[in-house]
Design a protein that fits this description.
Blueprint (H helix, E strand, L loop, with lengths): L2 H9 L6 E3 H4 E5 L13 E4 L1 H4 L6 E2 L4 E3 L1 H4 L3 E3 L4 E4 L1 E2 L8 E4 L5 E3 L3 E6 L3 H7 L3 H10 L6 E2 L2 H4 L3 E3 L3 H39 L8 E4 H4 E5 L8 E9 L1 H4 L6 E2 L4 E3 L9 E2 L4 E4 L1 E2 L8 E4 L5 E3 L3 E6 L3 H7 L3 H7 L4 E2 L3 E2 L2 H6 L1 E4 L2 H19 L4 H20 L7
Parallel strand pairs: 3-10, 4-9, 16-23, 17-22
Antiparallel strand pairs: 1-13, 2-11, 3-5, 6-10, 7-9, 7-11, 8-12, 14-27, 15-24, 16-18, 19-23, 20-22, 20-24, 21-26, 25-26
Amino acid sequence: MSRIDKLIAEYCPEGVEFKAIGEIAELVRGNGMPKSDFSESGVGCIHYGQIYTYYGIWTTDTISFVPPEKAEKLAKVEPGDLVITNTSENLEDVCKSVAWLGGSQIVTGGHATVIKTEQDPKYLSYYFRTPEFFAQKKKQATGAKVIDVSAKNLAKIRIPIPPIEVQREIVKVLDNFTQLEAELEAELEARRLQYQHYRDALLAFGDQDVRWTTMAEVGEFFRGRRFTKNDLNADGLACIHYGDIYTQYGTATTATVSHVRSDMASTLRFAKHGDLVIAGVGETVEDVGKAVAWLGDGEVAIHDDCFAFRHSLNPKFVSYYFQTAAFHAEKNKYVARAKVKRLSAENLGKLAIPVPPPDEQERIVAILDKFDALVNDLSSGLPAEIAARRKQYEHYRDRLLTFREAA
């Protein structure tokens, strides 16, 4: 019998009491705090969007701050409180939470709720990621494009409340899993930085006698045709949406994550095997200009915010070069810096690219493919180990947080 089993047998032999969140906590809804309020220093703050993009189960530091005069008007978060999201574009992210374990008061804003409770905050934060909690929040969620679980509806969700001694023992076990995964993630990040350094050095060519030319001299660009997310269809034509390039794909792909309605075929433009598909827009300078080599069989439809680059080079060689710091530094000179960042086909054509002999391109691709697999391939190496550890953690988390309810 584990220590947790012994504690449950000792403190709650008849089962664990389930209570609505509103019964065991005070819920304070945040308001205001757009990103334009952020400052270099001041009072620490947690923006709702950061909860599902940056923070984990808990944190002792914030990545953002607001001036003290703005903080006065915002919802206060004390050490031991949780900040939970009320809004997201998908059901998975809504109601994710982070326990604030820092040493001082911070603030949060709109689309977030502060949960103030005497329960172990990390216990609650772990529980809010279980399938049982997901099933309940799904029933309380409203909206289609934007999913919302209001503070009022959040308060209705029932959760198991074992004695604090049991909560703390569960947290101790799950923290060990989280720490191990964090160590593996840190090692993987170090290897990725090493890979990026080697890739950039290999594609800089140093003192080698390599011909450099503009992209317009070794290929041509053409823009895709418009389709919307409403046009996507699981049974339709393979397509690449510009947003997928910087969220779903790596250097190259043989299959797409999206498909568009087949009856739109006559209105679309298609990339061919070997073309580079480039994102022409992005919310950041970093994202615009990212690319993926299309190596699938047949053609693939491309969005009107994408460009296809049809060229005479090794497609993966070009895609790897598009990832280098040198390419991004030159690209930055041509990006139109409006609210949405853009690159035109004309400016893409001005960018320089090295053109070593075909056999040298192939040799470089073979080397970088091996490095890329070490840091990105989910079927081998550290990525595979991290994925296995994550499954193991989720299995134990769900088991540890499943209780027999007291009569």
